[in-house]
Design brief:
The complex is a heterodimer of chains A (176) and B (389).
Chain A lengths: L2 H23 L2 H17 L1 H6 L3 H15 L1 H10 L20 H19 L3 H11 L5 H8 L3 H21 L6
Helix pairs in contact in A: 1-2, 1-4, 2-4, 4-8, 6-9, 7-9, 8-9
Chain B lengths: L2 H12 L8 H21 L5 H11 L2 H8 L3 H7 L3 H8 L4 E9 L2 E12 L11 E11 L18 E7 L15 E6 L5 E8 L9 E7 L9 E3 L6 E3 L7 E5 L9 H16 L7 H17 L1 E2 L5 E3 L6 E8 L3 E8 H4 L7 E13 L2 E13 L5 E11 L2
Antiparallel strand pairs in B: 1-2, 2-3, 3-6, 4-7, 5-6, 7-10, 8-9, 11-17, 12-17, 13-14, 15-16, 16-17
Helix pairs in contact in B: 5-6
The chains are: A mainly alpha (176), B alpha+beta (389).
Chain lengths: 176, 389
């Protein structure tokens, strides 16, 4: 793989990798760091990517690994600089143009509550959750990236969904 | 819509990948990557080692020379971006070896090995102990090994695996021990490979070896003779390519015969487990579906290959595409074309799904095998894009 191909990988996967980094770290500055480190680490191993049939899963696995090995750093920074609401950092692409401003606001609020609920989950559940929904990886791909059995991935996803529902209900937040 | 479906929809919305990095950030990555790339490429041209090697080679034995000339195991681990493994190779648990064997036009040095739990940055959440070994491979004539960015790279393959004395090597090798490897070629043209697999320490009381087989990416029974009585393997002199064995000096005290036996029993049970059979009706239905899908797909350019069956009646198909990745597999002709009535066989080999906006798209990869009237076998890969309803 040459650097032209790296450009192509950025074009193809930047939104998945960056969104994954942003959800995982909780703030833009940290997401930028993690995203950059992920690409640079991947570049060190161009030949590895070349052999990977699934570059997106490889990048996400690298990002998750860097995050795991540096979580203390991220946790410290998190305490020093409290997180801004994620929705303020994300462009409005999800809210439909057909929705009224009020409806759009409700959608944004719902998303915000769900994201907050996710931040209260144990890291193991969060990583799988973001791999599945944000990076849009299959259960097989997640199992391969984390080197855990497929059954464990399914069980973590199940736990994450249920725990979040519980957190939302405990906070008297009505999903619908 | 059911509550659970609504909730699922909400989760998809909340976590959808709708954040993009600043273009400046991507530019910075491109710039830093280019610098790194240029540095790696240009440094290749420096041939500072050659005169020094020529002088020292006269003065030193091969073993000492190899140890001096090559990177240390920890440095190799650093080069593959695995700092935790580098630390493990610096620890007292590591076993430095630095032994060189020359055969088949190559010079292979086993630099060292280390075993333990969670000793790699890439361990994932794996709790199992793993063994890592570092090797250096050089051309015997001193010419550089092909760089990983070179077209020649990978044309000569090496199978490197630990073996346990007394266990048939074709039944038990790195392939069955969840093994893998990473490798790179340093600017001086030396290839370094780090292999990893489930920890072999538990077998230490049986005697451990490490085989290197050239011109093969799997264990090749032609490379060694296995003595059923003694359980030892010896290289076959007639083998075309490198075939050498290193002794692995792992302390016998580290053996865990019970765990070893359990490991083997689980492996044998897995190997002997009956393949899940499907009824003829289900099989026919699957075939019809694959045929129907194949008609809707498009051929991946460059994927069409003519296949030659080996003496056991197997054909090997390999496809590499920048866009769709790689695929390879071995197929038995008898399974592909069980009778004379059908000369086209479609095999679904992978299905992946992804979200595009609100739609779920499915990509199915099919290998289509054809047999013509003269018995010539060809295979091509077809990609079918569809929407999930």
């Amino acid at each position: 793989m040459n650097l032209k191909e790296l450009d192509r990988l950025i074009e193809l996967y930047e939104k998945y990798i960056y969104s994954f980094c942003l959800n995982l770290t909780g703030q833009k500055a940290e997401a930028d760091d993690l995203y950059q480190e992920t690409f640079l680490k991947a570049v060190e191993h161009l030949e590895k990517i070349n052999r990977e049939s699934n570059p997106k899963a490889y990048f996400i696995a690298v990002a998750a690994g860097i995050y795991r090995n540096n979580r203390k750093k991220y946790a410290i920074r998190y305490r020093i600089a409290p997180m801004e609401p994620l929705s303020e950092q994300i462009p409005e692409t999800v809210a439909s143009k057909e929705q009224s401003p009020e409806e759009q606001m409700i959608v944004r609020e719902r998303k915000e509550e769900i994201k907050k609920a996710a931040l209260r989950l144990p890291e193991k559940l969060r990583v799988v959750l973001y791999m599945y929904y944000t990076a849009q990886m299959t259960v097989d791909e997640i199992a391969g990236a984390l080197k855990i059995p497929k059954g464990t991935v399914k069980s973590r996803l199940h736990k994450a969904r249920n725990s979040m529902k519980q957190i939302l209900e405990d906070g008297n937040y009505e999903i619908f | 819509m059911k509550y659970s479906e609504q909730y699922e929809q909400l989760l998809k919305q909340a976590f959808s990948p709708d954040a993009m990095p600043d273009e400046k950030l991507n530019d910075k990555i491109r710039e830093l990557s280019r610098e790194d790339y240029v540095m790696k490429r240009t440094s290749k041209k420096k041939a500072v080692f050659i005169p020094l090697v020529a002088i020292l080679a006269l003065l030193m034995s091969m073993g000492v020379f190899a140890a001096w000339n090559l990177l240390k195991s920890e440095k190799v681990a650093e080069e593959i971006g695995d700092d935790a493994l580098a630390r493990a190779f610096e620890s007292d648990d590591a076993i430095p070896i630095n032994e060189t064997k020359v055969d088949g036009g190559y010079k292979v040095t086993l630099l060292g090995l280390v075993s333990g739990k969670g000793i790699s940055d890439f361990s994932g959440e794996e709790l199992k102990a793993r063994t890592y070994a570092v090797l250096a491979i050089e051309n015997e004539d001193g010419s550089p090994m092909p760089d990983t960015l070179d077209d020649e790279y990978g044309k000569v393959s090496f199978f490197i695996s630990p073996l346990v004395k007394g266990i048939k090597p074709w039944q038990f090798n790195i392939y069955y021990m969840e093994g893998g490897y990473k490798e790179f070629v340093k600017e001086d043209g030396i290839l370094y490979r780090v292999i990893e697999c489930d920890s072999i320490e538990m077998f230490a009381d049986r005697g451990l070896e490490l085989c290197v087989i050239g011109n093969s990416s799997v264990y090749n029974i032609d490379a060694f003779a296995y003595n059923e009585q003694t359980g030892e393997i010896t290289p076959n002199e007639d083998y075309e390519g490198i075939n050498v064995v290193f002794d692995l000096p792992i302390d016998e005290k580290k053996a865990d015969p019970e765990a070893a036996e359990r490991y083997l029993q689980e492996l044998y049970a897995e190997q002997e487990a009956p393949v899940e059979e499907i009824s003829e009706e289900e099989f026919a239905k699957e075939q019809e579906e694959a045929d129907r899908l194949a008609e809707q797909g498009k051929e991946i350019p460059g994927s069409l290959k003519e296949l030659k069956a080996d003496e056991k009646g197997y054909v090997y198909y390999e496809m590499e595409s920048e866009e769709y990745g790689t695929w390879n597999g071995e197929y038995r002709l008898e399974d592909l074309f069980p009778d004379e009535s059908k000369n086209v066989r479609n095999e679904v080999c992978s299905i992946s799904e992804g979200q595009v906006g609100n739609e779920t798209r499915r990509q199915t990869m099919i290998i289509q095998f054809r047999r013509d009237e003269q018995g010539k076998i060809t295979a091509r890969t077809i990609i079918v894009e569809s929407m999930v309803e």
